[in-house]
Amino acid sequence: MSKFVKIVIVILVLGVMGYIVTSSIATSKLSCEVCIDFKGRKACRTARGPTREAAIQTALNNACAQVVSGRTENILCGGSAPVTVACSGE
Questions:
Q1: What's the burial of 60, exposed, middle or buried (CB within 10 Å: 0-12/13-18/19+)?
Q2: Residue 29: how many CA atoms within 13 Å on its side-chain side?
Q3: pTM of whole model > 0.70?
């Protein structure tokens, strides 16, 4: 393989990596902190997302994962309303 081909491959790989990093950062502009109280167990988690709803849902899922045990409780917790929601970047 010639030196020119190697340079072209390196440039292409760096370009793809740069695109992946910038596109993932650009889609996560909103940050939301969600606090839950499920069966007396409390947790707060922060998540980022492209929309307010996506960030809230991700934060809710992460908070529920901290306080539940089992699939049934996870489903019940995920369907419950958060105690507090605070978003920034809107």
A1: buried
A2: 7
A3: no
Q: Which amino acid is at 55?
A: A
Q: Give, for 36, the enclosing helix (H) or strand (E).
A: strand 30-38
In which residue are the tokens 């049934």 written?
72
Contact 28, 48 (CB under 8 A): yes
d(C-alpha 59, C-alpha 12), whole Å: 35
What is residue 24's predicted lDDT score, i.e. its pLDDT? 66
**How many angstroms separate the CA atoms of 4 and 67, rounded?**
56
How far apart CA 61 and CA 40 sit, in angstroms, is 17
- What pLDDT is stored for residue 60 in this prediction? 94
Nearest Cα residue to 52 out of 33, 65, 35 = 33
21-71 residue pLDDT tens: 776 666 667 899 999 999 999 999 999 888 899 999 999 999 999 999 889
Cα gap 55→36, rounded to integer Å: 15
